Amino acid sequence: MHQLVEQFLKLKPSKFDGKGDLEAAILWVKELEKAFALLGCTEEEKVTLAVYQLQGVANDWWEATRGRVFPIGMVPNWTAFAETFNGKYFSEIAREQKMVEFLRLRQNQMTVDQYEAEFSRLSKFAPRMVEDPVDRARRFRDSLKPELCSQLILLNLRDYNELYERA
Predict the structure, then answer these.
(1) Domain-wise residue ranges, the chain
(2) Among the listed residues 21, 20, 48, the one whose alpha carbon sits nearest the alpha carbon of residue 35
């Protein structure tokens, strides 16, 4: 375990203090999962390493929650930890707010590159709306500036990357 912790810390994973918005928590989990995959961690090791990265109110929350999630004798596993963490830091209300942000997203004064970056960032919160590649491309196109949108409609492009490049 000592060697695993050393390897993990060499990757310089971020700490999580429970402050910040929904996206900070999402990025923290994704970063950890990348490190876990690289290091070939077991389920129990994932929990141990993740808990080590908790600080402040997040650590206090886990200390108060740990016994309920992993009663004495139960081997910790990443799935249970992640579900509990998500329940705390990815509240349904916060996810809905991000989905509404995605629904309201319009290019307006952004460049196409800025709009695409925002589209990609927010689309994670509305996966069912963009899981079909044609729907993803259509949604991207329809929220562009009207003059761009009307030109792209004529081209009848169905591929998201091609649509983005043409825009």
Answers:
(1) 2-89, 92-166
(2) 48
